[in-house]
Write a structure and sequence with these properties.
The structure is a homodimer of 260-residue chains. Chain A is of the alpha+beta class and 260 residues long. The first copy, chain A, has nine helices and eight strands. In chain A, helix 2 crosses helix 3, helix 5 packs antiparallel against helix 9 and helix 6 packs across helix 8. The structure holds a DNA duplex (30 and 30 nucleotides). Chains A, B: InterPro entries: GAF-like_dom_sf, HTH_MetabolicPath_Reg, Tscrpt_reg_IclR_C, Tscrpt_reg_IclR_N, WH-like_DNA-bd_sf, WH_DNA-bd_sf.
Chain lengths: 260, 260
DNA sequence: CCATAAATTTCCATATAATGGAATTAATAT
DNA sequence: ATATTAATTCCATTATATGGAAATTTATGG
């Protein structure tokens, strides 16, 4: 009875997907789904049936447990193209990973989050915040995420900071201040020591539209030993050169920039 | 007015996702979506709004056109794990790609389709039916797809053949006969010359449960020159060894087998 | 730059489709 | 076997999605 958008059933269905997504890989039983989504059993059953018919949910093995279906994987690999960004950026990521010997990430904005769209490992494999491709972190937490946030237009930046304050607090971090964000814009990159995983540092540079709206960020993850202050400028420069190259290609192609 | 499952709104919403998925990367406008899905404009608008709020749809650039959102990419990369199958199989695919120098695919069943869950290229890059990770082909068309179909229980096999007959016809191919499928089961592998792309051959072996239900297939794609009849047995044997290895690992792990 | 057309968005009375309580059936646990 | 819990079906009720109409915004072209 909270709000009536005229799409309760759809939103409930999507809510079920979200619940199943967060669940462990053994999957969820119908009862659990109903409980988590605050639905009555028959309601949950109907929606689950529809999602299963469509391939958005699938049974685990031959049990009755439910996990995400492969149709989502298919749609995801279409949606993940994000207007060709991943394809355009991949060679750059590979070059950077090879040149630095470290771990490179392509982060793009999706609503209030930054999503890891691609990742290229070289010699050293790093545990980042987002970790894997498809992982997400609230805008403002993590280097790539921070860099994207810093380049959002002021009004939007404020909205996002407010919206993510509690989420980031819950992760025992803080929303970056406007001063910090301004610094990121001025410097053209952001570096931080990972507060979650000791000994890990990250840095990121933005990929911008001609009007300097952020599309994405290239981030590096490495151990402190491998990315000392002396080495940073050279690495950042390489990353910036590749970012410019990607920007140029995106502008050249009649294609399409990601947003929202 | 066809059937009333009690989830019209949800199914319509998912239908919109399917429509957008098939659309070119420039995205669809609301009018087009409404037309394709046979919805009234306001209805389409409401559903689209809900999908956009949830990140399942996103605007293209700053236009009003819609494409799939990154939330689908995130969910997809969770759903794509398919109970750990991709992770378990990846080393095997890499080994095979390296050993053969050709292109290896991991295909899994999803409803009436076989979906390409992973792909490892070696020296030679091949244009397969499914092409890319996330691509799908109707069960019965393509080597991996064919192999999975061949190992389905009889009743299910029939259902799928009937269900896919028209789809496969539309692609100017034929549903395999029961005799062909029996042959695949007996031989333990399937080889064919690609009828769509000249000079390309494929072959596939199944990954089965202990009860011999098909989970997935490993497929190879190569040029005729690179995969002549003399070489085939050796390659098939390698693939079968890796398939056995994957089966063993899947049984060992308390984990989870894909299905649906 | 303004006029016109087209697409998008909002509004709301109506009817239909989703809802959830109760009962049934199936699957586990004891 | 029996008890317990979960999954599914049924159906009367009403909350919810629906779509016609209108307002608004955006695109088009004169």
């Amino acid at each position: 009875m909270k709000k009536q958008n005229g799409s309760q059933a759809l939103e409930r269905g999507l809510g079920i997907l979200e619940a199943v997504a967060e669940a462990p890989p053994e999957g969820l039983r119908l009862t659990e789904i109903a409980a988590m989504c605050e639905l009555e059993q028959p309601t949950a059953h109907r929606l689950v049936a529809a999602l299963e018919r469509a391939g958005y949910l699938a049974r685990v093995g031959d049990s009755r447990r439910l996990r995400l279906g492969l149709r989502l994987f298919q749609l995801g690999s279409i949606g993940g193209e994000a207007g060709g960004l991943a394809d355009v950026a991949r060679p750059a990521l590979i070059r950077l990973a090879a040149a630095t010997g470290d771990c490179m990430f392509l982060m793009v904005r999706s609503g209030l989050d930054a999503v890891c769209l691609d990742r290229q490992d070289a010699t050293y494999t790093i545990h980042s915040l987002t970790g894997h491709v498809g992982g997400a972190t609230p805008l403002g937490l993590g280097t790539g995420s921070m860099t994207i946030l810093a380049h959002l237009p002021e009004a939007e930046r404020h909205e996002v900071r407010e919206a993510n304050r509690e989420r980031i607090r819950a992760l025992r971090h803080d929303v970056p201040s406007e001063a910090e964000l301004a610094l990121v814009r001025d410097r053209g990159f952001y570096r931080e020591v990972n507060r979650s995983v000791a000994g890990i540092v990250g840095a990121a540079v933005p990929i911008l539209t001609p009007r300097r709206r952020p599309i994405a960020a290239i981030a590096i993850g490495a151990t402190e030993a491998r990315l000392p202050d002396e080495r940073l400028p050279a690495v950042i420069e390489m990353m910036q050169i590749e970012a410019r190259r990607i920007e140029a290609e995106l502008n050249a192609s009649p294609s399409v920039l990601a947003s929202s």
